[in-house]
Amino acid sequence: MEQAAAPEQRRIHPAAYLLICFRLALMLMLLLVCVPLHYLWRLLGLDRMWPRVFLSGIGAIAGLSLRRHGKRVPGALLLSNHVSWLDIPALSHAANSAFIAHDGLAQFGFLKWLCDMNETVFVARHKRSDIGNQTEAIKEALNHGGTLTLFPEGTTSDGTGIIAFKSSLLGALEPLPEGVVVQPVALVYQDVPEISWVGEEPGLDNFRRILGRVRPVRLDVHFLPPVAGDDLASRKTITSAAHDAIGAAIG
User: Fold this and answer.
1) Are strands 77-80 and 97-102 parallel, antiparallel or unpaired?
2) Which of 9, 17, 87, 206 has a Cα at 20 to 30 A from 224?
3) Please, what is the Cα angle at 197 between 94 and 171, to 5 degrees?
4) Are strands 121-123 and 217-223 parallel, antiparallel or unpaired?
5) Residues 84, 100, 112, 199: is their CA dihedral positive or negative?
6) Strand order in the sheet with 97-102
7) Is the peptide bond before 175 cis (omega within 30 degrees of 0)?
8) Is the pLDDT of residue 69 over 80?
């Protein structure tokens, strides 16, 4: 499936900038509350809950309306389709998840700071010599009972289907550590042409456009049966099984 081009009609009405400014102000206030509490919790050795609270709040402020389907397996490695930046606050809220991300994100200071607070595990596919360290970081996160999400498409799709999964993104998990549960998750948005971030649209434009919406962003989060049996044999069989399951859920 090829990436869809960004539609020409994606424009922000001038009046929507009032709503965008209001939502940005709320997000800033939320950040100013959650960051000190995060560092206080960390100083006291308590659970790092405030980054998840922050991301969940970002989704709520942006108008995200979630419905959950299926049973989530706590502490699982989630493989999800990827449609929008809203996927991250959505799965943080619905699954209490941290994320596995490409180390290219670590080049942006503010973004890396936010990712580190949420216990993001950065991986670099091109650094084969560092696979061992990446594997240990992922295993440590999962062994502590945390949930991690990986987007194996490696990019965003238009939400009407999914593109091929890159099994190489699971290179740090081959062989699969003992006891790790791999659970596919299907994110199904309503109004996907208005939500998806595809084509040549800059990320900031997509962010502003979604914040300028009056209608809620409705999202169904489908927790699908975990990958099992022979499908766990390798990263290729895992990604193939997850791709088929998510594709069937999306329709």
Assistant:
1) unpaired
2) 206
3) 65
4) unpaired
5) negative
6) 64-69, 217-223, 182-189, 77-80, 147-150, 97-102, 121-123
7) yes
8) yes
Helix (H, G, I), strand (E, B) or coil at 80: strand
pLDDT for res 7: 44
- The C-alpha atoms of residue 228 and residue 185 are separated, in whole angstroms, by 15
Q: What is the dihedral of CA 184, 232, 101, 68, to 10 degrees?
A: 10
First-last CA distance in the chain: 14
Rounded to whole angstroms, the Cα distance separating 230 from 238 reads 9
By CB atoms closer than 10 A (0-12, 13-18, 19+), residue 32 is exposed
Q: What are phi and psi of 219, to 5 degrees?
A: -135, 130
pLDDT per residue as tens digits for the range 155-205:
888 888 899 998 888 877 777 877 889 999 999 999 888 888 887 788 888
- Strands 147-150 and 97-102 come out as parallel
Neighbours of 10 (CB within 10 A): 13
Q: What are the tokens at 73?
A: 């397996």
pLDDT digits (tens, 9 = 90+) for 216-251: 999 999 999 999 999 999 999 999 999 999 999 998
Q: What is the DSSP letter of 160?
A: S
pTM above 0.90, yes or no: no
How would residue 112 be classed by pLDDT, with cut points 50, 70 and 90? confident
Backbone angles phi, psi at 98, to 5 degrees: -95, -175
